[in-house]
Design goal:
The complex is a heterodimer of chains A (105) and B (289). Chain A is α/β, with parallel strands linked by helices and 105 residues long. Chain A contains 3 helices and 5 strands; from the N terminus they run βββαβαβα. Chain A has a 5-stranded mixed β-sheet, sandwiched between helices. Chain B has 2 domains: 2-49 and 133-286, Rossmann fold, CATH 3.40.50.300; 61-124, Alpha-Beta Plaits (2-Layer Sandwich), CATH 3.30.70. Chain B is elongated and about 70 Å long. The chains are: A alpha/beta (105), B alpha/beta (289). The interface between A and B is medium-sized, with 17 and 14 residues.
Amino acid sequence: MKIAITSTGNNSTAKFDTRFGRSSWFCVYDNETGNIRFIENDNKNLSGGAGTKTAEMIAELGVKQVISGDFGPKAKSLLEQLKIQMVVLEERDLSIQELLNRIKN
Amino acid sequence: MKIAIASGKGGTGKTTVSVNLYYFINKLITSDIQLIDCDVEEPNDALFFAESHLVSEKKVFQLVPEIDTEKCTFCRKCADWCEFNAISIVKTLQFAKINPDLCHSCGACIVACEFGAITEHQQPLGVISHFDTGIGKGLIEGRLKIGSAMQTMLIKEVKKNTRDSAKVTIYDAPPGTSCPVVETVADADYIILVTEPTPFGLHDLKITVELLKDLQKPFGVIVNKAGLGNNEIYGFLNENQIDLLGKIPFSKEYAAIYATGNMLNDIPQEIESCYTGILDRLNIKTGLK
């Protein structure tokens, strides 16, 4: 299963991004193959619809679960329809590596 | 003559000035006057006419497209054409949906679709009400459906439902300087900016002045709650040669009367003379009389 984590940068030392639609990057981790990719979020500066466009993007990537700090109402509704599970993390100061370690264990 | 009352900052007194101008123009100049509440997200002019009664009410709809996934090929052309990112297509999941909260009903997606997969459906936008207030030709108010972001579309509809032939039309604009305000002032002959002499009032006035200069609209300023804050606002008006139509003094008692909805009953002499002065200066600028 592919899991997406909102990230402020393009490598695992980067901090977790607490926003979904306007997150800078996504870390996509496949827990079956162990493969990790970083994908830039081209939708982050859209004037409107950033949340839904980003939900569409991660759905196209085949992601089934997404971890972020929060989800806007429109993104939330679309992610539900797309059957992508949302995980809200209240801790703010984590690096992507720390999160990946938690998922792996 | 169409006069829009706008402000920039909220709470400066647009409604106070709109309702009073409506009252005093009817009393002193012409009874062929209508008041239009364009603050469709929170219309409140009607609150000041306790004796008024509803003459007519009209529900307004917007057309929102829907995608038939049986006919859709998930080519994404409609999503690419959509300026508002309202269309979500995920080909791998055979998913195609339009978010009505983001859609502006422009119709581009229907033109874009080569497979006849998109049709339009009516969705409630709001209500337009006409009140007989016993003053002039009455009040028309637009009331946006809660949750809708389509203020501009409803303001357009409200304007279609006003009497174009009225001698004077007063538009009570929403706060801010975004699309709903632009729509409200678009066909106005003159704009009155209501401000307050505070740093926030001045800050937002400057933005609104820039907007009106861009739109090449004639305007003047009323300083409401005069006596509060500081005098910087007058310096700004002087430097930029902006007409000061009048000052309305701050009064806690008057604010209390406003809050009870009794603003038009027992109008204080001081307030009345403010408005007669404002109307004189407005007449010089616009030939209102």
